[in-house]
Amino acid sequence: GAGVSQSPRYKVAKRGQDVALRCDPISGHVSLFWYQQALGQGPEFLTYFQNEAQLDKSGLPSDRFFAERPEGSVSTLKIQRTQQEDSAVYLCASSFREGGTEAFFGQGTRLTVV
Amino acid sequence: GENVEQHPSTLSVQEGDSAVIKCTYSDSASNYFPWYKQELGKRPQLIIDIRSNVGEKKDQRIAVTLNKTAKHFSLHITETQPEDSAVYFCAASMGGAQKLVFGQGTRLTINP
Question: Is residue B32 within a helix (H) or strand (E), and if so which, with residue range?
Answer without folding.
Answer: strand B32-38
